[in-house]
Design a protein that fits this description.
about 70 residues; SH3 type barrels; 5 strands
């Protein structure tokens, strides 16, 4: 049976992910939760630019309609 995107997110709970948003911003952190709209809760989040940490943010909520991709 094929895996669905939300199945992959469920497997990624508690692990480190990278998220790219519209506008090119990228964040890395531990996925704590999500919903069917792909709103994400990320703990220990860091904003990245060219794979370099720009800013440590702590816990953030990312609105799902801004997400371009999520890399587990």
């Amino acid at each position: 049976m094929a895996r669905r995107p939300l199945d992959i997110l469920n497997e990624s709970l508690g692990t480190s992910i990278i998220v790219r948003l519209r506008g090119g911003r990228e964040f890395r952190g531990e996925l704590q939760g999500y919903d069917v709209h792909m709103n994400l809760v990320i703990d220990d989040a860091e904003e990245l630019h060219d794979n370099e940490v720009i800013k440590k943010l702590g816990t953030i909520v990312v609105r799902g309609d801004n997400v371009v991709f999520i890399s587990p």
